[in-house]
Write a structure and sequence with these properties.
Blueprint (H helix, E strand, L loop, with lengths): L5 H20 L7 H22 L4 H20 L6 H25 L10 E11 L2 E12 L16
């Protein structure tokens, strides 16, 4: 059975990736095991959305890039600047393994419909009070489509 919900899939894949990282580095981030697992789950959801939008090809590479990039951003936000070359390389390797393992778990356990490249619907939800009751209205605004245009296409205005 495959997981079709991106949030659930990302959470599971992120935790699997975190186990792989712990196997390589032997330790959780300085924030503690529970916080480390939470960060891993949230980043797993992000990886799921990225792979849904870009496809499963080269998933391990995409995941490794996401893992290392997120690690660098989080390190900067948390002010972790006093690292030795050994701890830096250990962290770098651990996050690359985390990202690759997470992405591979997404592709392994994710429902194929998540990776078809079909556009995602954009919905606008609004609420209003009518006769003492809350009414919900949902409107589909359209879809997000990424299109590629050939170079020098006269119908597309080039931005410089």
């Amino acid at each position: 059975m495959k997981i079709a919900d991106r949030i659930v899939l990302g959470t599971v894949a992120g935790l699997i990736g975190n186990l792989a990282k712990l196997a390589v580095t032997g330790r959780a981030r300085n924030t503690g095991v529970l916080n480390d697992a939470t960060i891993a789950a949230v980043l797993g959801v992000a990886a799921t959305y990225v792979l849904s939008a870009t496809g499963k090809d080269r998933a391990a590479l995409k995941g490794a890039i996401l893992g290392v990039g997120a690690w660098n951003i989080l390190q900067g936000l948390m002010g972790e600047t006093a690292v030795t070359p050994k701890t830096f390389l250990s962290g770098l390797a651990g996050q690359a393994v985390y990202g690759a393992a997470t992405a591979l778990a997404v592709t392994r356990f994710g429902d194929e419909r998540l990776f078809t490249g079909h556009p995602l619907p954009v919905k606008y939800r609004s609420f209003r009070l009518e006769n003492g009751e809350v009414k919900k209205q949902e409107t589909e605004l359209g879809t997000i489509r990424w299109i590629e245009t050939p170079p020098n296409d006269p119908t597309v205005k080039q931005l410089h």
